[in-house]
Specification:
- The protein is mostly beta strands.
- It has one domain: Porin.
- It has two helices and 13 strands, in the order αββββββββββββαβ.
- The chain has an eight-stranded antiparallel β-barrel. A three-stranded antiparallel β-sheet has the order 9-8-10, with no helix packed on it.
- A hairpin with a 5-residue loop joins strand 11 and strand 12.
- The longest helix has 26 residues.
- Keywords: Signal.
- This is Outer membrane protein beta-barrel domain-containing protein.
- It comes from Hymenobacter lapidiphilus.
């Protein structure tokens, strides 16, 4: 069964999405009273396209220097409303992650690790939602502002973070270096017998899935001079929760659930380009 944070995110997202989904149909069903002219919408300019496809790079407060990548397909309902589906692929990092350089003088090796890191956490976020034009740009210039609301499942993948650990007898003997998932109960901290981080996909065969849910609200700012192309940035807030705690960092003296969270809110920015037709 889903945990309370996941149910809360799912229920809130469903309520908001249903409200927005109902808005275009309600707007379309309204008819002007006899003898009165219909009220104008945000703009009288009719959109010259019906579909839009964009792709870009994502930066967020839980993703380090580069969060991930995103694609989105949008279909117009009318000149002010549109529906979309999107897919975002990101790596979620723990706020306390920090690289450290270690040097083992015994074997003459210098390496780089993230102290305490036990798993990588990659997430795929398929979403559906609605987009509303808040401010329409001029036909060949200016900036268009859109409001977006979407949500969907979060499919997480916990992939073990492997280190190269030296089991050499401290009294001497041949090197005995093994690639293993970091375990604070078995492996010492920076220095000691840890030599370096193992290759990224060393533990891919032990990847475990985690299921959660997310909702997002955002503003997008579109630039460009051409009707068949789009360039812009999207700034938003994302709320995400999982049924089980994704264990990214571990400490021998602390419970995993005490230093890792199931609820993972973040602020993000996506820079995108795309085409319309």
């Amino acid at each position: 069964m889903y945990s309370r944070p996941v149910r809360t995110v799912a229920c809130l997202g469903s309520t908001l999405l249903l409200a927005l989904l109902a808005a275009p149909q309600a707007q379309a069903q309204r008819k002007p009273k006899a003898g009165n002219a219909a009220k104008p919408s945000i703009s009288n300019d009719q959109a010259s396209y019906s579909k839009e496809f964009t792709y870009g790079v994502n930066f967020n407060t839980r993703g380090g220097l580069l969060g991930g990548v995103a694609v989105r397909s949008t279909r117009l309902i009318n000149q002010d409303w549109a529906r979309f589906w999107s897919l975002e692929l990101v790596e979620v990092k723990h706020p306390k992650e920090e690289k450290a350089t270690i040097s083992n003088r015994t074997v003459g090796i210098t390496g780089t690790i993230v102290p305490g890191k036990s798993n990588y956490f990659f997430v795929a976020r398929p979403s559906v939602g609605l987009q509303r034009v808040l401010f329409r740009k001029a036909p060949d210039a200016g900036v268009q502002v859109n409001g977006l609301l979407g949500g969907g499942p979060s499919i997480g993948l916990l992939m073990p973070y492997y280190i190269n650990y030296n089991y050499q007898d401290p009294n001497g003997g041949p090197l005995d270096v093994r690639a293993e998932q970091y375990d604070p109960a078995r492996h010492t901290g920076p220095g000691g017998a840890i030599l370096d981080r193992a290759p990224l996909f060393a533990g891919i065969g032990e990847t475990k899935p985690l299921v959660g849910a997310h909702i997002r609200g955002a503003l997008s700012f579109e630039f460009g001079r051409y009707r068949d192309a789009v360039t812009g940035v999207e700034v938003g807030v994302l709320a995400e929760a999982y049924a089980k705690t994704p264990v990214i960092i571990r400490n021998q003296l602390t419970e995993d659930s005490a230093i890792n969270d199931r609820f993972l809110p973040s602020v993000y920015l996506t820079v995108y380009i795309g085409s319309r037709h």
